[in-house]
Each structure stands twice: as structure tokens, then as C-alpha cells.
Write a structure and sequence with these properties.
Helices cover about 40% and strands about 15% of the residues. By secondary structure, it is of the alpha/beta class. It has an eight-stranded mixed beta sheet with strand order 2-9-8-7-6-3-4-5, sandwiched between helices. The radius of gyration is 21 Å and the shape is globular. The protein starts with 11 loop residues before the first helix and ends with a helix.
Length: about 400
């Protein structure tokens, strides 16, 4: 009989990270009979034009696009990203190009957070942030959001009571999943708390260009520069498959972050960076694309909201979306995780609210993405969800 002295094992970080509920649902919704309100898939195909294809051919015709690049990123793209952060002005030297803003977030957390360090997030929060913080073994404090964003008074009370976070992660503009927008007043108040208690504020800002009304200034307008980090991405307006994002922050953070990125992947795809740079610097093109997408999302949000009110009545309550890609609905009774199997059986998928928290999950909520489906499918999905509610 063989005696086993050693067994294979994975690291603590690998064991701590939960599977993405959304990624798991994508496998279930591959069936064409299932209408998915689950995945946050931008409708970029609906505003596609020949420009991207032409630019891709142009970029790939240059052999340099197939070569290794610098860890910092393609200089013209860094300059453009810095230019989007004009108030106050940003230095391209403090911008790094990443494989999507998800990698940017992971790098920021790995640069700042050791196991057991305190981190503040919104409640609910972005699922990808929950995964990154679980891998870091951070001690997470979740502060509830209301219609004006994170509850600053509650955060101030926790800080006064002794909480000392390394960072505060927020998606304050058309937040995923809740869709709320943090008020300008609270943004300024948060900056004051960061300055007083010495923690980094991470502004994850992928939906800014998809607002149904102009959003407040970025968080960095009210946060001292040494505590301010902004994440951006080309995924929501241009193409998520390119996996191009960026991070801007103070030099004391960006320099070690660059070394961690170098250890992870050397650099972001040269061809993808150059394609994005050519697209976003084309006069007026990106702005027009964002306008068309925003108009489409405003319309689809209205279609889904109207269909849910008609089909589900008072069994679901929600605020009208103000921008972004999601509708955050609350069940009058029951748990979203219990509702999901019945919904899938009737051919509609959503993400239960429990996926968007590391503790005290909001399981009476569900996140519905209105960006992907057309009008008829949105109405049918609402009918199927209402049938599952019965």
C-alpha cells in the first residue's frame, strides 16, 4: 500500500477568492433559450462602424505593433488618458496602461494592502473588487450607500472610532451594481476624511461617459493628490475584448505598482494599446460613439423599467436608472438566490445581490443589465422574471 506523505495544495489567496457569480452564469446562459440580464456586456456591436476595423489594419501593418513594449504603456495613450483628467491637470508620467481596469485595481490593492489591513468599500460593491480584496486577505469594512452614494456620516463615525483603512474603494458614478451617483458634497467630504486620516481613495470610473445627465466632478477634484487614484477603461465605450485600461495616481504609489505589473505580465498588449490610442485620439469619434451608446442605454433602461412595472407590479421595487448599464431591484419578499433557479427554468437570468458583498449580503436585491438585449427581448425577460416571482 502506498503511503501518501504530501498532497497538492494551492495558496491561501487562491483558496480565498470566490468564483465570479457572473462568470458562472455566463456558462448557464450560453443556451439561446435563456435571455440574460446577468452579464454586464456593453452593446458595442450596436454602434460598431468601419473605423475600428480600418484602424486595426493600419496598426497591424506596422511591425512595431507586434513587438514588446514598455511596462508604463504606449506614450500617446498615456497622454490621452492624462488629458481626460484635466481638473486638476494630470501628468502622463503618473499614468500606467493596464489590461483592463480590473488589473489596475488588482495592482493598486497589491501595492497598498497587506493581509489584515483595513479597507473600506461601498455596500453593495463591485463583484470584481470583492474578489481582489478577498485575494489580498483584507479586513473589509462595508459602508452602505443611499441615493447620494456612500454614507459619509457613517464612515466618519467609524474613522472617529478608530478605523484606519489603507484605502477606500468606490465606484461613485453610476455604480455597479446599484447605479447610484455620489453627490458632489459627499465627494468633497470624503476628500477631507482622506486628508485627515491618511487613506487612499480609489475612484473606479468606467461608466462616466454613459450618464443620462451630466455627472458630478471626479473624486480627484476633492481629494488631495497624494491620496487620489483614478481607474479608467476602454471597455465600456470602445471594446471590452481589447482589455485596455489605465490607472492614475501619485508617484509614490505608481512606481512600485509598475514593478508589480512588470512581474505580472511585462506590459499591456502593444497592438491593443496602439489601436485604442488611434481610436480615442480621432477627433470627435469617441465622443460620438459615447453619445450613441448613452441614447441606446437610456432607451433600453426605460423599456426594461416599464416592462417590470407592468409585469411584476409591487413585487419588485427600484429607482429609475440614472446612467450606466444596470437596474438594481428589490424583492418585496424572499431571497434572490432562491428566485434564480426558478428564473433560469423560465429562461431568464440575473445576478443575485448576494454576489456584491463580502459580508451581510443584500440578498433581497437583484442586478439586471439592460445594455445587451433588444426591446422585445427585454419585455420578454421581464415577463419571464414575473412568472418566476409567482
Amino acid at each position: 500500500m502506498a503511503i501518501v506523505l504530501h498532497r497538492p495544495r494551492v495558496s491561501g489567496a487562491a483558496g480565498r477568492v470566490p468564483s465570479s457569480t457572473i462568470r458562472d452564469l455566463l456558462a448557464l446562459t450560453a443556451d439561446d433559450r435563456v435571455l440574460s440580464l446577468a452579464g454586464g456586456l456593453p452593446a458595442v456591436g450596436h454602434v460598431h462602424d468601419q473605423v475600428l476595423a480600418d484602424l486595426a489594419a493600419q496598426v497591424l501593418a506596422d511591425p512595431a505593433a507586434a513587438q514588446y513594449g514598455t511596462t508604463e504603456g504606449w506614450a500617446p495613450l498615456r497622454a490621452w488618458a492624462a488629458g481626460t483628467l484635466a481638473d486638476p491637470p494630470a501628468d502622463p508620467a503618473d499614468v500606467r496602461i493596464t489590461h483592463g481596469s480590473q488589473q489596475a485595481l488588482d495592482l493598486v490593492v497589491r501595492t497598498l494592502v497587506d493581509p489584515g489591513d483595513a479597507v473600506v468599500v461601498e455596500h453593495p460593491t463591485y463583484l470584481g473588487a470583492a474578489q481582489v480584496l478577498a485575494a489580498a486577505d483584507a479586513a473589509v469594512t462595508a459602508v452602505p450607500v443611499d441615493d447620494d452614494g456612500i454614507d459619509i456620516a457613517r464612515l466618519a463615525d467609524a474613522l472617529a472610532a478608530g478605523l484606519r483603512p489603507r484605502l477606500c474603494y468606490l465606484a461613485p458614478t453610476y455604480q455597479n451594481p446599484s447605479g447610484v451617483v455620489m453627490s458632489a458634497e459627499r465627494r468633497i467630504q470624503l476628500g477631507g476624511l482622506a486628508d485627515r486620516y491618511g487613506f487612499v481613495v480609489v475612484d473606479d470610473d468606467p461608466y462616466r461617459d454613459l450618464g443620462f445627465a451630466p455627472p458630478p466632478p471626479r473624486l480627484r477634484a476633492g481629494v488631495p493628490p497624494e491620496w487620489s487614484v483614478t481607474l479608467g477603461t476602454a471597455s465600456k465605450v470602445l471594446a471590452p475584448g481589447l482589455r485596455v485600461g489605465w490607472v492614475h495616481g501619485p508617484g509614490w504609489l505608481i512606481d512600485p505598482l509598475t514593478r508589480l505589473k512588470q512581474a505580472a505580465d511585462l506590459h499591456t498588449s502593444t497592438a491593443a494599446q496602439r489601436l485604442v490610442a488611434e481610436a480615442v485620439t480621432r477627433p470627435g469619434w469617441l465622443e460620438g460613439r459615447a453619445i450613441r451608446l448613452t441614447a441606446l442605454y437610456r432607451h433600453r433602461a426605460g423599456v426594461l423599467a416599464s416592462a417590470l412595472r407592468r409585469a411584476a407590479g409591487d413585487r419588485l421595487t427600484f429607482a429609475a436608472p440614472r446612467g450606466g448599464m444596470f437596474l438594481w431591484a428589490r424583492l418585496a419578499r424572499g431571497r434572490a438566490t432562491d428566485l434564480l433557479p426558478a428564473a433560469l427554468a423560465r429562461g431568464v437570468a440575473f445576478v443575485p445581490g448576494a454576489a456584491f458583498a463580502l459580508a451581510d449580503p443584500p440578498d433581497d436585491h437583484l442586478r439586471l443589465c439592460f445594455a445587451t438585449l433588444g426591446d422585445d427581448d427585454l419585455r420578454t425577460a421581464a415577463d419571464r422574471l414575473a412568472a418566476a416571482l409567482h
